[in-house]
Amino acid sequence: MIFNKTPLEGAYLLDLEKRGDDRGFFARVYCEGEFAEHGLPTHYVQVNNSLSADKGTLRGMHYQLEPHAETKLVRCVRGALWDCLLDLRPESATFGKWYGAELSAENRRMMVVPKGFAHGFITLTDDAEAFYLVDEAYAPTHERGIRWNDPAFGIEWPIEPVVLSDKDANQRDFDHEYHLQPAAV
Q1: pLDDT tens digits for 49-88?
Q2: Broadest EC class (predicted)?
Q3: DSSP state of 176
Q4: 22 found inside a domain
Q5: Hey, how many other C-beta atoms are within 10 angstroms of the C-beta on 27?
Q6: Could you count the other beta carbons within 10 Å of the beta carbon of residue 26?
């Protein structure tokens, strides 16, 4: 695997290191040792799969608060999507910065979304399917989301969304107290 650093501290865009011949190719998509060398989680507790039927479907920007913050390893296995991450770690030098890249079945790239980042994507094709590993279980009391077009961050989505869930369409703009504090139980 080729670990490409992004402009955001701790986030990586991964490319496969293909070894091929006339039959096709072989490539490793996960290696515990290589992930550990890069300071990334090596234990995942969930594997998620999402299918978006229509081009322009936007999902995000979602994250979970500590102690349930998640690291995600995201790959597009059918079609194409533009994957976006936003650093929400107050102590980070890249707090409030975002990064996006195209993930597709063809380019086989993967995005590592670290703990403390909001994550979302918009589909660039019909029938785009994402497959991702998560190192923490879903915890509804620690779930948060930020409006996809919050002017505080200025994310430059490659296309305008056509399909948004009610949940994503009604997310709030960023508010430090709400977005970085767990809900009262």
Answers
A1: 999 999 999 999 999 999 999 999 999 999 999 999 999 9
A2: isomerase
A3: H
A4: no
A5: 12
A6: 11
Tokens matching residue 88: 């929400």
For residue 141, give its domain range.
Answer: 44-179
Task: Round to whole Å and give the CA distance between 100 and 32.
Answer: 25
110: helix, strand or coil: strand
Per DSSP, the chain holds a count of helices (H) and strands (E) of 3, 14
Specify the residue for token string 């995600």. 72
Answer whether 145's CB lies under 8 Å from 167's CB.
yes
User: Angle at Cα 69 formed by Cα 137 and Cα 50, nearest 5°?
Assistant: 55
Q: Which tokens in the block code for residue 63?
A: 């994250």
**b/e 81-107 (16+ beta carbons within 10 angstroms → b):** bbbbbbbbbeebebeebbbbbbbbeee
Q: What is the rounded distance in angstroms from the CA atom of residue 85 to the CA atom of residue 37?
A: 22
- The catalytic residues are 62, 132
Q: How many domains does the chain have?
A: 1
Residue 40: both structure tokens together: 């990334």
> What is the CATH number for 114?
2.60.120.10
For residue 111, report the phi and psi dihedrals to the nearest 5 degrees: -115, 135
